[in-house]
Design brief:
Pfam families: ABC2_membrane, ABC_tran. One of its GO terms (cellular component) is plasma membrane. It is found in: Membrane. Its main location: membrane. By secondary structure, the protein is α/β, with parallel strands linked by helices. The chain has 3 domains: 334 residues, Rossmann fold, CATH 3.40.50.300; 34 residues, no CATH class; 261 residues, no CATH class. The protein has a 6-stranded mixed sheet, with helices on both faces. It has a 4-stranded antiparallel sheet with strand order 2-1-4-5. A hairpin with a 2-residue loop joins strand 9 and strand 10. Helix 5 runs parallel beside helix 7, helix 7 packs parallel to helix 8 and helix 19 runs parallel beside helix 24.
């Protein structure tokens, strides 16, 4: 199908003088230098206050950027007959049925072009982008070739090294400043093969290019929506990827932020990168900034080609855009089935344009010409394809391994752990309120328990009261250890998923950095409770009994914490909030409310696997076992004047504290291993 040229524009909307003025400014942004913001225009920003997004957005020119960020291999993406099917449960048939989301779509995204994937909600835009990024592989069929290699059939790891995927939600660390976030990523992605001075220079250049230099010391939580989006892009540009895939980068942004974001993507594409993004309904001005358009409707491709060729294409199909209409809005209406549009006919015509596009030789664009001049220092003929592009267009055997040997090596596993651990310490120090609340809760409950059970640990007539105190101690430490991470760790998964998918770090260093922050916190909080309640309840001040008490309490709260991590990973957030305390109550029943000989045989396994039971029995024995002397009795008769008699009647006389503590600790280690396995499955489930 013959498409309209760049010079002949079909009138599609009415433009006011302000819109024309804005269009000229946007064109100047992408084709020439923007003047830097003068010192008089810069504003001192309070890191704790939200940033006004109406500041001027400035960039460096292509020549300077190209010197600072050398080009890698140009990457073209071709995909053919992409199908995607997912399972949907049917209540009528009581079995899952397959639903097809994408119906054999094909296309090509070239380097040096800014491509927009458009379509109404539910058309399959994000699904297609997820497949191209390698984020969603299960249920996908077809061929996705990157410079000739099929990434669906075993070469996706090679593609990951050349690409980055920026998801719709900005999963940033709110407690870090812009500069700190960039520095951590630079150390993780560039390793220590790149000097610190080079990293700092590259960070400054990126922030300056993206208009974030004046907000370098601003915490990310105080950035505006557009600035957060630009920071997300800057974090991925640290490794200078050849391919940028973005899922609806303009969602939630105002018109000014949208213009800045698309202008930035346009500039990145002009440097020779392959930039593909999904976008729902851009304005007319933003729509004209895209080089290539890929329209999707009901899982079919209904148009692909230049933006200027869209309206002539639709006109040939009998669909004429009114002169007052935004062409992007008109396309969405057509894709939604309005104007009696025959989507099958549109899809058939769009399929023909795929083969025509692949047969068309690559011609250098104005933006890419500037890049070539910078690299080679020679003049380039506009009509002559660049040698690198020509080889990509003609050769199916192009390798995506052609990365310079000087490419930086990522940080080692030990370096990743140290960096992530240091980052977590910074976040903890700045979010100290949560930490102080946990300490205050443990101290408060310790004081309350101490006054409620004051002096019960040394009297024969209050043995049962002390028994309840010991049970309450285990119950409290289990709940606080478990629920603190059950509620917080699922919130970490979104950021962890994005950072791990883009190869910032490996799973093991990340998990160790998380638990080695949480473990000392939980130990410290538990100690606050134990010291206060132990003294007030008048427990025996014998050194070995105190050590046994501390050992059992710390072990059980850390095991409960491990259980909280596991439940938070394997279950949805709302289910985890209900399931975690339910399991704790179930396990606490065995060993306190019921004796071993009263438990039915089919429930004995719960008694044996209950780490709550093992810890509770060990705690009781640590207080009343090991030949404790007679307890003072202030009444006429005290039935449990002899501590051994109490242990005998509670059926815990033969409890071995060492074995039980090892058992409880082993369960904690096992649960941590299960958690790592569950996280790995979630992160690698494509």
């Amino acid at each position: 199908m013959k498409q309209g040229s760049q010079s002949t524009k079909t009138p599609c909307c009415l433009k006011t003088p302000s819109m024309v003025s804005m269009e000229h400014r946007l064109q100047e942004t992408t084709l020439s230098n923007l003047s830097k913001i003068s010192s008089a225009e810069r504003v001192t920003v309070n890191p704790q206050q939200p940033i006004n997004n109406n500041n001027k957005f400035h960039t460096l020119n292509n020549q300077k950027i190209q010197r600072r960020f050398p080009r890698k291999l140009a990457v073209d993406i071709q995909f053919t007959d992409i199908y995607y099917r997912t399972r949907v449960w049917s209540l009528q048939q009581l079995k899952p049925s397959k639903k097809e989301i994408l119906h054999g779509v094909s296309g090509e995204f070239r380097s040096g072009e800014l491509t927009a994937i458009m379509g109404p909600s539910g058309a399959g835009k994000s699904t297609l982008l997820n497949i191209l990024a390698g984020y969603k592989m299960r249920g996908a069929e077809g061929s996705v070739k990157v410079n000739g290699r099929n990434i669906i059939k075993g070469h996706h790891n090679e593609f990951f090294r050349l690409s980055c995927y920026i998801m719709q939600e900005d999963a940033l660390r709110p407690a870090l400043t812009v500069k700190e976030a960039m520095t951590f990523v630079a150390h993780l992605r560039l390793g220590y093969s790149t000097s610190h001075r080079q990293k700092q220079k590259q960070i400054f250049d990126l922030l300056d290019m993206l208009g974030l230099a004046e907000h370098a010391n601003t915490r990310t939580v105080a950035l505006s929506g557009g600035q957060k989006k630009r920071l997300s892009i800057a974090l991925e540009l640290i490794s200078n990827p050849s391919v940028l895939l973005l899922d609806e980068p303009t969602t939630g942004l105002d018109s000014s932020s949208c213009s800045q974001c698309v202008s930035l993507l346009k500039l990145l594409a002009q440097q020779g990168r392959t930039v593909v993004c999904t976008i729902h309904q851009p304005s007319a001005l933003l729509f004209e900034m895209f080089d290539h358009l890929y329209a999707v409707a009901e899982g079919y491709c209904i148009y692909q080609g230049g933006v200027q060729g869209l309206l002539p294409f639709l006109a040939d199909m009998g669909l004429t855009c009114p002169s007052y209409h935004n062409p992007a809005d008109y396309l969405i209406e057509v894709a939604s089935g309005e104007y009696d549009a025959d989507l099958a006919v549109l899809a058939a015509e769009a399929a023909k344009s795929v083969s025509e596009r692949r047969k068309t030789p690559r011609t250098i664009t104005a933006g890419t010409e500037e890049v070539v001049k910078t690299i080679s220092g020679t003049n380039v003929d506009d009509q002559k394809p660049h040698a690198q592009y020509a080889s990509l267009a003609s050769s199916e055997d192009s390798s995506i391994d052609e990365i310079p040997e000087s490419s930086p090596v990522s940080a080692s596993l030990l370096a990743q752990f140290l960096l992530l651990y240091y980052r977590n310490i910074i976040v903890l120090c700045r979010n100290y309120k949560h930490f102080m609340i946990r300490i205050g809760a443990h101290l408060g409950i310790g004081l309350i328990f101490g006054f409620l059970y004051r002096g019960v640990g040394s009297k024969a007539d209050s043995v049962f009261a002390n028994y309840v105190y010991l049970y309450g101690t285990i119950l409290f430490l289990v709940y606080t250890g478990k629920m603190a991470v059950t509620l917080s760790f699922p919130l970490e998964m979104g950021t962890l998923r994005r950072e791990h998918f883009n190869r910032w770090y490996s799973l093991l260093p990340s998990f160790l950095a998380i638990i080695l922050i949480e473990i000392p916190i939980q130990i410290f909080c538990s100690m606050m409770y134990i010291v206060v309640s132990y003294i007030y309840t008048d427990q025996p001040l014998e050194e070995y009994r105190i050590l046994l008490f501390l050992m059992v309490c710390v072990t059980v709260t850390l095991t409960a914490q491990a259980a909280g991590f596991f439940i938070g990973v394997v279950t949805p957030f709302k289910i985890a909030v209900f399931l975690s305390p339910t399991i704790a109550v179930l396990l606490s029943t065995f060993g306190f409310n019921i004796f071993h000989h009263d438990i039915p045989e089919y429930f004995l396994w719960l008694y044996h696997i209950s780490y709550f039971r093992a810890a509770f029995h060990s705690l009781v024995v640590s207080m009343y076992g090991h030949n404790r002397t007679l307890l003072p009795c202030e009444q006429l008769y005290c039935h449990f004047k002899y501590p051994d008699k109490f242990l005998y009647e509670m059926d815990i006389r033969d409890v071995n504290i060492s074995e039980n503590t090892i058992f409880v600790g082993s369960i904690g280690i096992f649960l941590h291993l299960c958690t790592v396995t569950a996280i790995w499955i979630r992160l690698n489930r494509r």
